[in-house]
Amino acid sequence: MTPSAEDLLAVARLYWGADEAYRFRQDPSPEDLRYEALWAEKNAERPRWGAFVKTLRKALPSCDAWDYAPGLANPSFGVVVYPHQEQDMMRPQTRWTVAGYLSILAPLYTVHCVRRVFLGKHLMESKVFLGPAPLELRDIADTIARHIEADYGATALPLEVAQTPVPLYVNFMKPPETMLFHALFTSEPGNIL
């Protein structure tokens, strides 16, 4: 069963500040200290996550899958999956990425998609899709979700709960833009390579 938005906000408050009192200070906030301690504990699980990513590579042979767990930057382990696509440097090319995140704050996960349009190497447009995956990516998203559920026993965070605004400062996100999604998974869902 998915915890309520109120329960998840209570968890998030342990790790993210409700103000910017420590933003320009040398010493860490109590939330920072708890977050760093939790990551120090969770780092022991990195080899297991690496094995999980290798399993996904085998389950998705028409894609490239990579570990995306940038340490303290995100409160989650992440995997990014790139469907193989042909490239034409003369026309705009749409490239999709499917990202899966396993929160370290609660037994929850999410899968979202990022669409980028390039002309050659120049990024022309980028858009994040937090809701259901586009039809052509649904099998990939479902495979990631099934594997996270099977390997970690995590539950998908429903979109309506993920989009709950929270009065917290999460990395560069600040109220009123901050959502539970940012506090539990990543403050920059489109910032994946």
Features:
6 helices; 193 residues; alpha+beta; 31% helix; globular; 6 strands
Describe the biggest sheet?
A: 6 strands, mixed
Radius of gyration: 17 Å
- The secondary-structure element order is HHHEEEEEHEHH
What is the helix fraction of residues, given as a range? Answer: 25-40%
Q: Please, how many domains?
A: 1
By secondary-structure content and strand pairing, the structural class works out as alpha+beta
Give your account of this protein's structure.
The chain is an alpha+beta fold and 193 residues long. The protein has one domain (5-184). It has six helices and six strands; from the N terminus they run H-H-H-E-E-E-E-E-H-E-H-H. It has helices spanning 5-13, 30-42, 46-59, 138-152, 159-162, 180-184, and strands spanning 63-67, 76-83, 93-103, 108-119, 122-129, 155-156. Strands 1, 2, 3, 4, 5 and 6 form a six-stranded mixed sheet that branches. Strand 3 and strand 4 form a beta hairpin. It starts with a helix and ends in a 9-residue tail after the last helix. The mean pLDDT is 93.
